[in-house]
Write a structure and sequence with these properties.
By secondary structure, the chain is of the alpha/beta class. It is built from six helices and nine strands, in the order βαβαβαβββαβββαα. Helix 3 crosses helix 5 (253-262). It starts with a strand and ends with a helix. A hairpin with a 4-residue loop joins strand 8 (227-231) and strand 9.
């Protein structure tokens, strides 16, 4: 599938080449986007890629007075990147680093595809794209379909706010320790999910169904699930769907409204 503009913000690490096909060992330490751009141009010369040096502000990671201006600059830069994007992928290494992009994509009604890895598990999901003229409905027990505007985000099932997940984390709990094929499976599904969303008449508001025999909600390419959760230990996957939470720390209307009112002041306070 053809994606014209690709942006990345980090450098190639030694764990990347075995699970990220655009890189080899000699690329370690180089900026990811610039290195990927050269490789992508070998495949498609008309592709565009731009590297961005950006540190995403994260809840649970203290911001000192001396850092506040830099954090605000990063927030503004992140906003500009999201404003210019058609689709945003969340592929960062920690849960809390996904909070601010989730809030921004929710507020700006952007399609957001989220992918996360465990050692032998993966999650690929799309966030709901809100229709603010709708009232968020209470989940219906036994309902087989959820409207795309009512689908939850990555944080909707959390019972606590995102915090510093890197503290006291053991090596096997880090996303860099994963079965190499896990990354390729998740990446492939993330791209295919995006394409299926874009081919649906409702785009980001495409509904998700739990009924495997219900083809009425499909795009021309087939099913448009909310989530795909895979388990390499027994080579299986499931396609759950979950409802948006009206008190979600990232996508509920109260948080979005506060963000819109004060713009970059609110996320700094939240962080």
């Amino acid at each position: 599938w053809y994606q014209r503009r690709v942006r990345e913000t980090v450098k190639v690490s030694y764990s990347n080449p075995v699970r990220q096909s655009l890189f080899n060992f000699d690329d370690c330490g180089k900026p990811k986007a610039e290195t990927a751009a050269a490789r992508i141009k070998q495949i498609n010369p008309s592709a565009e890629s731009r590297g961005v040096d950006l540190s995403i502000p994260m809840p649970g990671h203290p911001v000192s007075k001396l850092e506040e201006e830099k954090v605000k600059e990063n927030i503004t830069l992140l906003e500009d990147l999201i404003d210019s994007a058609d689709v945003v992928y969340l592929l960062t290494d920690t849960r809390e680093s996904r909070w601010l992009p989730t809030l921004m994509t929710s507020a700006k009604h952007k399609i957001c595809i989220n992918s996360a890895l465990g050692f032998d598990t993966y999650l690929v999901m799309r966030h709901g794209v809100k229709d603010e003229s709708e009232v968020l409905e209470a989940p219906q027990i036994g309902a087989s379909t959820i409207s795309g505007s009512q689908l939850g985000c990555y944080f909707c099932n959390d019972v606590v706010a995102p915090g510093d997940s890197t503290k006291d984390r053991t090596l096997d709990q880090m996303c860099t320790v994963t079965r190499p094929g896990n990354a390729f499976v998740a990446a492939s599904l993330a791209v295919e999910l995006m394409v299926s969303v874009l081919q649906h008449p409702l785009k980001g508001q495409a509904p998700a169904t739990l009924d495997l025999n219900d083809e009425k909600q499909d795009s021309c390419l087939g099913r448009v699930p909310h989530q795909i959760r895979g388990f390499l230990a027994h080579f299986s996957s499931v396609q759950p769907a979950s409802h948006a939470f009206n008190k979600c720390t990232a996508c509920c209307m109260e948080v979005i409204s506060r963000y819109r009112e004060k713009q970059n002041g609110v996320p700094v306070g939240g962080i």
